[in-house]
Amino acid sequence: MKVCISYRWLVLSLLVLTFIVAIGPRLRAAEQGKRPNILFIYTDDHSYRTVGCYPQSYPWVKTPTIDRLAKEGVRFEYAYIGTWCMPSRATLLTGHHQFGVESMRMVGEYPGSTYDPAKCPFWPQVFREHGYTTAHIGKWHTGTDTGYGRDWDFQIVWNRPKHPETSQNYYYNQPVTYQGGETKILKEYSTDKYTDWAVDYISGNGRDTSKPWYLWLCYGAVHSPSTPADRHMAEYPEIDVPTPADIFPPRPGKPAWAQKVNVWEKAENGIPMIGKRSLTSWVRQYHQGVLAIDEGIDRLLKTLDETGQRENTLIIFTSDQGFAWGQHGFRQKVAAYDATIRSPMIISMPGRIPQNAVCPTPVGGVDLVPTIFRFAGIDLPWEMHGHDLTPLLENPQADWPHPMLLTATGRTYGSDTDTIPEGQAAYHGLVPWYVMLRQGKYKYVRPLIDDIEELYDLEQDPDELTNLAVQPQHQKTLTTLRAAALTELNRTNAGFVNSMPPVREGI
Q1: I want to staple 281 with a disulfide (CB 3.0 to 4.6 A). Which of 252, 256, 270, 277 is the partner?
Q2: What's the Rg (C-alpha) of the chain?
Q3: Does domain 36-400 correspond to CATH entry 3.40.720.10?
Q4: Distance, CA of 63 to chain centre
Q5: What whole-number distance in Å separates Cα of residue 101 and Cα of residue 119?
Q6: Is the model's pLDDT at 16 over the cut of 90?
Q7: Which residues lie closer than 8 Å to 52 by C-beta, 6 or more apart?
Q8: What pTM does this model have?
Q9: Element (H, E) at 306
Q10: Selected residue with higher pLDDT from 22 and 188
C-alpha cells in the first residue's frame, strides 16, 4: 500500500514537473511580451560634448545622472538626429527624412508652420489605436496643430509656431497650452516645470493607468539664450576652453561656402569673442544650462523606480541636433560637421538591453521610430526611411549593413524639395543644402550647390580639419561613398536625386 501511494506521488510529481517545464517558457514569454512604457527624453541644441560619458566632453563637465543612464544602457557614439529643430522633430513624428515629410511648410512669421494631417500623419496616433496612452510635454515646433486629441491623449505644450512673438522665451514666460484648451503664461523655469509635469504623469496622474504609455518629453534647454537655472549661475567658475583650430578662416581644403563663415572676432589678446563676451563665457553658460536637465532626469529615474516601472520602461535620451562653439567658425547647428549636428544618444532598459555598452555604428533619427515600434510590438503603419536598431541594442558591436543618411533642405519639406532652388534660397543661413552619409569611419558630404564635396576619416581626423575629397589618393573612397549616397537617396525616394548639381572636381 505504501509503495502504491509513493508511486502515485511520484507520478503526480512528474506530471507537475512536466507541466511546469512546459508552461514555464510560456509564462516567461508572456512576461517578456508585456508591452513596455516608453520615455523619450529630448533636449534642444544639445551637443554630445556636454555629456561627461562622451570622451569628447571637457574634463570639467558634470552630468552624473546622464552618465549613470549610459552605464545602465547603450551609448551611441555617433548619433545624427537632424540638422535643426523643426526637421528633427518632423522626422521623429513621421519616420521620414525632411524631404519625405509631405505638406509641412513654414508660413508667416518665424517659426510659423503648418501641415495637413491627412498627408502627414504622426505615428503617436497609431500607438493610441493599439492601446497606448500617449503624452507630449514641453516644446512643440512642428506646425501650429499640435495634434491633441488625435495624436496625444495628454499634452502640456509650448506651441512655438503659434506664438512667434515668444519664440525666444525658452526658459521663462512661455504661453503654455494645457490639454488643447487653456493657455497660460509659465513664469517658472521651464526645464524644472517640464520635469514636474513629467514626474506627475509617470506617477499616474492624468493617464489611464491600465494602459502602457509613451511620453515625449521635449526640453527647451539648452537652446539659445541658454539661460541656466538661478541655482547654477555660479557653476564652472574656473574652466579652460581651448580655442578650436579652425575658428577663424582660412580653412584649407574646405568648400568656398565654408571659407565665408566668420562669426567670431579675435580680440587683441587672441581670445575669440562675440560682442563683449568670450568663447569661454558662452561655453560656461551653455554647460550651466545642462545641469538642470541632468537633475531633471534624476527625478524621472527615481520616479520610475519608486513606482516599479523602471524595468518595463524603454528610455531614449537624445537631442534634436548638436551645437558648435567655434568649431569651423560656427556658433550654431545645421552644417554637416559633428561639432554642429552630432547628438548624444543613450537607450536603456534594464534586463532587455546590455548595460555599460558603447555602439560605434553611426545611426540617425529616422532609425528611432521603427525601433520604438519594434519594442511596442506594433507593425509599422507606413514605409519608413530608417532601420530598427534592435540588432545593435542586442549586440552593440554587431556588423551593420546600413549607411546613415542625413539631408538638409533648409526650411523646405516633402515634395517642395524636388526642385533645388538657386542662389541664397538654397542656403539655410550660412549653410547650403546638402546630403551627408556616414559609413564606417568615413563621412561624405555633397553640397546641393556648385561647390566641392567633403570627405573625412573620423578615426584619424575627428575634428574634420582635413578634407580628403581634394586629395588624389582618396578618390576611390570618394567615388564609393558618392554612389552609396545616391543609392540611399533613391531607396528613400528623394525627389531631388536626379536634379542635383554636377559634382565639381576639387583636385
Answers
A1: 277
A2: 25
A3: yes
A4: 18
A5: 9
A6: no
A7: 61, 62, 63, 64, 66, 67
A8: 0.93
A9: helix 279-306
A10: 188
